[in-house]
Amino acid sequence: MTKILAITNQKGGVGKTTTSVNLAASLVTVKRRVLLVDLDPQGNATMGSGIDKRTLVTSVYQVLLGSAETDAAIVISSGGYDVLPANRELAGAEVELVDLEDREARLKNALAKVAGNYDFVLIDCPPALNLLTVNGLTAADAVLIPMQCEYYALEGLSDLVQTIKKIRAHLNPALHIEGLLRTMYDPRNTLAQQVSAQLQQHFGEKVYRTVIPRNVRLAEAPSFGVATLDFDKTSKGAQAYLALAGEMLNRAGHRA
Hints:
By secondary structure, the chain is α/β, with parallel strands linked by helices. It has one domain: Rossmann fold (3-Layer(aba) Sandwich). The chain has twelve helices and eight strands. An eight-stranded mixed beta sheet has the order 3-4-2-5-1-6-7-8, sandwiched between helices.
């Protein structure tokens, strides 16, 4: 059965796209079929997957507006997973979607045509609560929240939880938090330790045991258009995302 995960945080710079790309590559490594949906007009997940967003003829923009079929827009990444790519055109979708029928469910309807081909669909949402993010949350079974262990991240998390409750109440009753992922973690930082402890206290088992460390290889890999696993598979960053993929699969096994 296909698992659709929205990877989102209303705060930018928390490792959302890094998580989307590297988790996709890690799941492919353990023989899972993966589709990565880039819902961010910046197209960072697209470029980080080895796809030139400037030369795209068809993207998620045309799919959302109904002028292209989903499978026609999908391309294969450098990491072996499929990508529904994005570029700057997507910024215009925010305005154009407003007058369309089922505007909040356009992505859900588009993915319904191809989701059966994959074990996981990962949706990289933009760092804002807009109609694109709402589409991502409406299409998803669950939410994966990457976050840094710092004070402002806790503030943003509170807002995101309220957003998820609203989406659940009005658009997607089955939506739930799959897990919270601590990113850019430095165990020597006292504040990071305190925030991490607070997260575990409030969210319990929802907090992944896997922690993503600060790692220069995670920052370098996107400039080469590859996931960190393909850039330096021995790096701590690559190994951490492999561990996350394993933890996710184990959780799914326990639930099953």
